[in-house]
Specification:
Layout (H helix, E strand, L loop, with lengths): L1 H25 L10 E5 L2 H4 L2 H10 L14 E5 L13 E7 L6 E6 L7 E7 L2 H33 L3 H11 L1 E2 L7 E6 L2 E7 L4 E10 L8 H15 L9 E3 L6 E7 L2 E12 L5 E11 L4 E10 L6 H11 L3 E2 L3
Parallel strand pairs: 1-2, 1-3, 3-5
Antiparallel strand pairs: 4-5, 6-15, 7-8, 8-9, 9-14, 10-12, 11-12, 12-13, 13-14
Helix pairs in contact: 3-4, 4-7
Amino acid sequence: MMQKIRMILVFTLFVIACNQEQTSKLHLPSVNGKAGEVLLILEDGYWQDTIGNYFKDLLLAEVPGLPQIEPLFDVSQIPNSGFSKMLQASRNIVRVNIQKGFKPAINFKKDVWAEPQIYIQMQAPNEQELLNLLDKHGIQMVDYLLEAERNRNFIRAKQYEAIEIERKLKSKHQLSMIIPKDFQLYDEKKKFIWLKKETRNYMMGIFIYYYNYTDTNTFSVEYLIHKRDSVLKLNVPGENKGSYMTTEHRIDPVLAHLKYKKRYFAEVRARWDVVNDAMGGPFVSYTTLDKKRNRIVTLEGFAYYPNNNKRDLIRQLEAILLTVDFEDK
C-alpha cells in the first residue's frame, strides 16, 4: 500500500513539475532586438585581443552576393558585469567565461529568458582552451545562429499564408511552399511562376521554374547561371524596350552545396542586373531534384532596395524558399 502511495506521489510531483515548466514557458516575454543582432558577453580585454579577433572573423564575416558589404550578424559586445536583467531578453546571446578550473564546454540552449531566443554558453580554463573550442565548434555556432534567424522568418511567414497561391502551386505545379500573404502572383506560365511583394521602399520577388533532368552537370554553377539567364530573358522583361533581367557577370557567383531537411540543394548567391536599365540587386537560388517527376526545380528570391542594406530581405526569402516540398505523384 505504501509503495502504491509513493508511486502516486512521485507521478503527481512529476505532473506538477511538467505543468510548471509549461506554464513558465507560456509566460516568457518576446525577444528584443532586430533581425541578425547578437549580444556577445565577453570581457573587454579578450574582445581587443586574439579571442575577439576570432569572434569577429566568425560573426562579422561578409555575407556573399550582396552589393554592399554586410556582416553575417550585428554584434554588440559587453563584459559579464554589463549583462543586466534588461538584456536577458536579447534574441541571440553568446556568453563566454574564461576561468581557471572550468572544463572546456559549449552549450546550445533555447528560450532561457525569452522566446524565440538562442543562448550559447562557452567556458574554458584559459585563452588557448577557448581558442581550441572555437576551432572545433565555431562554424557550428554560426550555423546555429543562422538557423535560428531562418526559423524566426519561417514562423513569421507561416502566420499569414497566401492560401490560394499555395493551392495553385500544388494543383498546377505539384509543389508546396509556405507563401506569405503579402506576396502576389504576378505571372504564371507552364513551368515558370513569378511572385512579387512591393512596398513604398523596396521590392522582393520569387521565381520558380523547372525543367527536365537530362544533364549530369546540372548542379554546376556554370550550368545553373546559363539556365537562369535563358529562362529570365524569356520571362522577365524590363520596363525599357529590349530590356530583361539577367545575372551580373562581372562578379563571380558563389555556389554552395546544402542539405536541408534531408533534401539536397545547390545554393547560388549572386547579383541580378537588367539589360538596358539601371536596376540591380542580390539574389539567392536553391536548385533541387524532384526525383518523382525527373525534373530540376529552381527557387529564387531577389531583392531591390537601392542604397540600403539587403541582408535581412534575402534571409526572409531564404526561409520561404526552403519550405519547398513536392506532392506525391
